[in-house]
Amino acid sequence: MEKDTLLLLEKVNQLRLTDEERDDVLAFFENADKDLQALNAIDTEQVERMVHVLPIATVVREDVAKKLFTRDDLQKGAPETMDGYWQVPRVVE
Questions:
Q1: Of 22, 2, 47, which Cα lies nearest the Cα of 39?
Q2: In whole angstroms, what is the distance from residue 3 CA to residue 1 CA?
């Protein structure tokens, strides 16, 4: 990151950094850029892509849709129903 870019970001984000803080931020991004360049230098052409580092197995039940309740069963506790819907008192007049 260039110093001009940092100054612009300070202005946009309404920040006031001291010269020492600016130097620390610039040094941080310089080190991050070096790390990124080192990672980009690694040849990963023969490496298989993966989503997870470790193999993951689902140990829960199979996801199968089941109809556990009927509408009538669910509406047994309703004070009032109409055409298969719960009726509730009007909240806003």
A1: 47
A2: 7
At residue 86, φ and ψ (nearest 5 deg) are -75, 140
Separation CA 67–CA 74 (nearest Å): 12
Tell me how many degrees the CA angle 50-56-60 measures, rounded to the nearest 5.
145
Residue 40 gets the label, from left (phi > 0), alpha (psi -120 to 50) or beta, of alpha
Contact 29, 1 (CB under 8 A): yes
Tens of pLDDT, residues 61-73: 788 888 888 888 8
| 15 Cβ contact partners less than 8 Å away, ≥ 6 residues apart | 9
